[in-house]
Amino acid sequence: MGNREALLDGARACLLDKGFDRTSVRDIATAAGVSMAAIGYHFGSRENLLFQALFSLLDEWGDVAGRVLVPVGEPGLSPAAAYERLWDDLLAQVRAHPKMWLMSVDLFMQAQRQPDLLPHVTDGVRQGRSGMAGILTSTVESDVPDRTVRTIGMVQMALMSGVVIQMLSDPENAPTGADVVAGLRALVALIDEEKP
């Protein structure tokens, strides 16, 4: 493994352990077993290295999480049961990889402070909406209509973000897939209820 790859691996380990703001050049160089000057040579700056490491971690985790999620149209399951199972699988991923979820929140915070990063985060959110819409409608992502991405995909991403933040903040009262489905049904009942 060359210095560039060692630095990426070291930065990935530091991000998981310390987060973006608390990871120093010295931390990365020590974890990688290379000189601090190698960071500037290969990546130009600590931030560029951390961004690349962060995106590689999120891509890797996204691939794993995407394989775990169950399409709603799975044979033998009602749509509600499949959606509940999707949530249970997602929440199991959060429990198994809490640092990955914390890093995604960290990425959002960094993008608010560093405008060069924001287009990458925006693109990731758009891909997430499209991917979730594809999973939920059992449609190839490239064939999902824009309106479906902007409705089903957007709401699912908002629900995921909110539920995951609540779960990480209060793990003893973490929701289940059944809780999410029951909550959605209650919200729909409120919206559909006729007021005199």
What order do the helices and strands come in, and which of them pair?
Elements lengths: L2 H16 L6 H8 L4 H7 L2 H23 L10 H18 L1 H16 L4 H20 L8 H24 L7 H16 L4
Summarize the structure.
The protein has helices at about 5-20, 25-30, 35-45, 45-70, 80-95, 100-115, 120-135, 145-170, 175-190. Helix 1 (about 5-20) packs across helix 4, helix 4 (about 45-70) packs across helix 6 and helix 7 (about 120-135) crosses helix 8 (about 145-170).
* Total DSSP helices: 9
Strand content: under 5%
**Average pLDDT value?**
87
Which class do the helix and strand fractions yield? mainly alpha
What is the CA–CA distance across the termini? 70 Å
State the order of secondary-structure elements, H for helix, E for strand: HHHHHHHHH
Radius of gyration: 19 Å
- For the record, the count of structural domains works out to 2
User: What does the main sheet amount to?
Assistant: none
Number of strands: 0
Show unreliable segments. none
State the share of residues found in helices, binned by percent.
over 70%
Shape: elongated
Keywords: DNA-binding
Pfam families: TetR_C_31 (PF17940), TetR_N (PF00440)
DNA-binding region: 24-43
GO molecular function: DNA-binding transcription factor activity; transcription cis-regulatory region binding
